[in-house]
Design goal:
By secondary structure, the chain is of the alpha/beta class. Helices cover 51% and strands 7% of the residues. It has a 5-stranded parallel beta sheet, with helices on both faces.
Length: 216
């Protein structure tokens, strides 16, 4: 099925909450980094994308939307490949975003010390390459964030684009997607503690997989 929504916001801009919100609106399954971990084959898929061998039909065959890393890095390819899809750019204050990344997925514990094996290779080929391998330098990471936002604003037609902060709640999202506003509160998911736990679990599961493969 073709994607109908392409989330171009970087991780730690409310993408986990946005994923849940999109699914609650009945649009269909929304792809997120967690889907990569749920199916190890997708780790190889994204290495292929990074090396210029993208097969988006295969990656998104069971999904109607996508948000978060690693897909957001390849937003130019995606908006061309799915010309009818609407584009949601999730944003937040750049300084707050930087501090959050350094306490979660770009922290030394999660990155240099922990992301090994095939998942680590995929993260390095996608996220690491996006930041030119310089993931702790404040000015460089902030510049990468701002450049990403400004390029999307400049290149995506305004009628196709929603610039969205999850703190805005349901109204702008539902108006953009032409959906009724749910009675329930807008979801809030994947705080910093949840994200740290997610990557620490990933480190453990990756290490276990490597050990298992060694003994086979």
């Amino acid at each position: 099925m073709p994607l109908t929504i392409i989330g171009t916001g970087l991780g730690r801009t409310g993408t986990a909450s946005l994923k849940i919100a999109i699914e609650q609106l009945g649009i269909g399954r929304c792809y997120h980094m967690k889907e990569v971990l749920a199916d190890p084959e997708h780790i190889r898929f994204w290495v292929d994308v990074a090396e210029g061998r993208a097969n988006f039909d295969r990656i998104f065959s069971d999904f109607s939307a996508t948000v978060d890393f690693p897909a957001c890095i390849y937003w130019r390819d995606l908006i061309d490949y799915y010309p009818e899809a609407k584009v949601i750019l999730s944003i937040r204050d750049a300084e707050n975003w930087f501090r959050s990344t350094q306490r979660t997925f770009l922290s030394p514990r999660c990155w240099e010390s922990g992301l090994s094996g095939s998942f680590g290779d995929m993260c390095d080929a996608t996220i690491g390459r996006f930041f030119d391998g310089d993931i702790h330098d404040h000015d460089h990471v902030i510049e990468s964030f701002n450049k990403h936002v400004e390029q999307i604003k400049a290149l995506v037609p305004p009628e196709r684009l929603l610039i969205f902060e999850p703190t805005q709640g349901w109204q702008p999202l539902c108006e953009f997607l032409d959906r009724p506003i749910p009675d329930e509160p807008f979801p809030h998911a994947n705080g910093e503690q949840d994200t740290r736990g997610f990557f620490e679990d990933t480190m453990m599961s990756t290490a276990g997989a490597e050990v298992g493969a060694f003994h086979q």
